[in-house]
Every structure is written in C-alpha cells, then in structure tokens.
Design brief:
heterodimer, A: mainly alpha, 13 helices, 75% helix, B: mainly alpha, two-stranded antiparallel sheet, 11 helices, 79% helix, 3% strand
Chain lengths: 316, 292
Amino acid sequence: MNLDWLDAFLVFGLFEVVMVIGLALLLHLQLGLARIANFGVVGFWGLGMYAFGVSYVRVDWPFGEPWQFLVCALIATGVAALAGLLVGWYVADLDTDGVLVGTLGFATAVAILATTQQELTGGALGMGGLGFPYDIGTVKANEFLWLVITTLLVAAILFFVWRVHRSPYGRLLIAVGANEPLARSLGKSTFRAKIGLFVVTSAAMGLLGAMFGVMVRFLDVLNLGVDITLAAIVGLVLGGTARVWGAVIGVVLTVGLFDIVVQVYLPLPREWHTQAIPVLREALFGLALIVVLLFRPLGVLGKMRRDRLMKKVHGR
Amino acid sequence: MDLVVQAVVIGLTENAPLVLAAIGFYLLYRLTGLINVAYAETVTLGAYFGMWANTTFGLDFYAVLLPAGVLAGLVSVATYLLVFRPAKRRNVGMLELIIISFGLSIFLRHALQFVFGYPVRFFDVPPPDTIMVLGVGVASFRLLALASVAILALLLYWFIQRSSFGLKIRALASDESLAQASGIRPLAVAVLIWFIAGLAGGLAGAFFGVGSSVAPLLGWRLFLPILLIVLVGRAWGLGGVITVGVATGVALAGATLQFGQGLYAQLLLILILLAILKIRARRLAAAGGVAA
C-alpha cells in the first residue's frame, strides 16, 4: 500500500482525536446522563494500557499474533472493568465531593503503581516491546491500519452510547442524574445502575488504553498525567455534555484543532512544538472549560433532544 | 521507638506547610461548599512568587514570604471576582463549578509557564544548617518553617473561631441571607476569606518550594492530600483539619521511613483516608443522610 501522501504526524494526530472521542463518549454516559464527574478517566485508561503492556511483554504466551493481542486486550478490558466495579462501588453512594476524591485518588494510585512497580512496568524508564498484531509492510501502513481499527472500535462505542440513550437503562441514568432520591423512591436501584455504568465504561476506557499502547509501542508513566482526562472533559463540555454527538464535535474542535491543524499544517518554528504549543494547548483547554461553562453551559449542541421534545409536547 | 521519634520530627518539620495549605482550603470549602481544584495553583503560585522575589531582588527566604503570600492571596481574590462570583450569579451548579475550577487550575498551571519559563526553578538560598532535634538532623529553615506554620495556624484559628470577623465568616457560610439581614456585607467577607485562603496556600507553596524545587506541578501533587485532609477533618471543624493534617504529615513520614519509598507511603495514606471517608459516608447513609 502506497501511503507516501500521508503524513505520519497526521496518522498519530487522527488516532489521538479518535481515541479521545471514544473516552469523551464514555464520559458522556457518566457526566452527561448520570451527572457523575469522573476526574480519573486517565486511571482506567492507564490501567488498561499497563495491564495490556505487562501481559503482552512479561508473559511468555504459547501462541502468536493475533491471539496474543486478543488475549492481552481481553485482560486489559477485564482489569479495567474490575477497577470500575471497585471505584463504582466506592463512589455510588457519595456526593460530588466524594466522586471527585474517589476518582482522583484512583488515578493517583494507578500512576503511583505504574511508577513504583519497576520490574513489571519499567517504572519511570518506561516499557517497550509492544507491537502491532500484524505486519502489512511499513510502520506507516501498520499505524494507518491501526487507526482504521480504532476508528471502528470508537464507532461501535458511539453506537452503544446512542443505543443507551434510547433504552430504559439510559432513562434510568438520566433519572439518576436529575433526581436520584426520587428515582430511588420509585423503586429503581440507582446504586446498581451506577456500578453497572462504571464497570462497562471503565472496561471500554481500558480497552482504548490498550489500543493506545499498541499505537505508541512504548509505555511511559508521563502519559498518566491529567492531559487525557482534560482532553475528554473539555471536548465533551464544549460539544455539549447532554448530547451523544457533543463528544464527537467537541473533541474535533479541541484536540483536532491542536493535534492536527496546529501540529501538522501550521508552519510554526520547530522548537515551538516541543514546549510552547503543548503548554498553550493545555492553557487554552482550561480556559475553554471556564468560558463554555460560564457562557454556554450546555455546549455547542445545547439541550438533550428529549428535553426539546418534552418542551414541544408539554409547552414548557 | 526510634522510628516513632523520627516520624514525628520529620513529619512535623517537612509536612507542616501541608497543614497550612489544608487550613486555607478548608476556609474556602467552609464558606462556599466548593471543592476549588484551582487552589492547587495558589500553592504553586506562592512558590513561584517567592522564587521570583528571591532570585530577582536578592531577598532572603524569610523576606520573600510576605510578597509570596500576598501575591498568591491577590490571585485567589482575582479568581473569585473574575470566575467564581460571576459563575455564582449565573446560578452555575456545584458540579459545573468544580469543573470550572478544574479548568482554572489547568489554565493557571500552564499560563504561569509563559511568565516564569518552562524549566524547573530553584530558590537561591545558602545551604541550611543542620540542627539535631531528638537525635534527628533537621534543616534550620524547616524548623523555622514549622514555627512559622504553627504561629500562622494558631493566628488563623483564633481569627476564624474567636474574632468578630471570623464570626461574620462563619455566619455567612451557614446562612447567607440571614447573615446579610444581620448587616454582614457578603462581598467584603468573601473577598477577605479568598485572600486569607490564598495567603495560606501561597505561604505553603513557598515553604515547599524552598525545600525542593519550584515546578508547575508542585501544587497539583499536594492537592489530593490537602483535599483528603479537609474532607476527613471537616467533621470536627478547623481544629479537626489541623489535627488530621498533623497526623497525616507524621504518618506520611513514618510510612516513608518504613517502606523506604515515599510513593508507597502516599499510596497507603490515600487508601486509608479514602476508606475513612467511605465508612463515614455509609454510616451517614444508614442514618438517613448522604455525604462525601
């Protein structure tokens, strides 16, 4: 496959956009529907990434690719789901403060373990040895195919989230976000709904972490900072927390703008790309969060489609 | 026994600024009910302002404490007037307020790098003398830091719990409309409390900065311990926050000595404090309430 026309930075930039869209879609279920502010997205994503990396590199599997990838990805998803079960149980009966401290604490614990368990994770030195589950020629071709596979995965997440919106479970999550005591008084098990939500979304976040691990082929604890969580939150908030497509549009407008338009197409001095642009990116993301929530709290897309329908039906 | 003595001495001298930062955070939390994530950057900015005053004007460490604290306090007030007050007037919900404070934290953390530069910075201070306390060597400025923090903490405690202004602050935190009806001016009191909180955070940042380095993540790395100390200690008021803060500092030092690895100590402490919060929340829920 001749991919000379394709810039290697563009492939990676697109991969980041697609991956963050996936995370923002999952966060949409938590924050947009159930009003649970998960500030530890990077914890689940990072746990999946490291669970995949450790099982892929440190275990001597008796079979080759693609089974090795599939088994390790399954392990990563399972470990992240277990973490989701634990964190979901922890935060399910707590208020916003408790959710913040629980999810932040979890993300911090993952970062500490990734740093200290040097024999497993490589610690601060990082861990190499990961690879694609196929080889179709050049590195660029392999990366491009991985981008396509990840895009399909995120499309499946988008479909899942879209289906949840229209399901009884989705309506229960909306009820949990709007008035949890009322939902509980109507006999709904909000505790179980929240735990289920955390298990499923955390598992998918872990799988996305594993996909990222394959793409970069080197795991670095520096990836476990706040950047991933910020990118998912700012994309979702800008697009609109209440709408499925809010996550997609918001991430394209934020991560897409910086990681593709600025990084690939703007003719900026090379030294800017190492420090000034990443720092400016994060500063503007932070500023965007403040401005959007102050002046357009529902984001670009506005209210939930269901709210508009209700207004039309009931006239209020 | 040696371990206990060492943990107490090291914990008190090295982690005293953590208590100061927790007091500042608690004051804001008590007044607004808001978990202000951007408070982490107040701590960071205190370290940067102190380092800037020290390296630019050649002031010694103790002379830079005043500008570091005051400037951090002014930034804290500015964030209130420019961000949180307008947000409150627009009836922004508590969840959104926390996200706004998260955005503000990220913005300040990165914007300060355009002002102070990207590399890690250091205070330009002479190497401290080592003083033996109960057989444990302690840097002289850490002892002075402990004394300063103890005095400041007592002053703040007295100010909040005993002075008439402190009474106004507590009244405002309990019931704003009733406080207003009693002649308390909410804006003046709010500005004062944001300034005091910023001052405490800034001083804590300067104490931490002089002991290690001044970097954009300084405050963020302390934020989770500060938050946990306040959430666990708040049930017993300001005294509870100070007590939990001191206990946390000592436990952190003891666990670090035991494991030989500071990160394991942090992890253990985070887990213990999270467990306390969960147990308390379940007890409250069983009694009919909901809490963090």
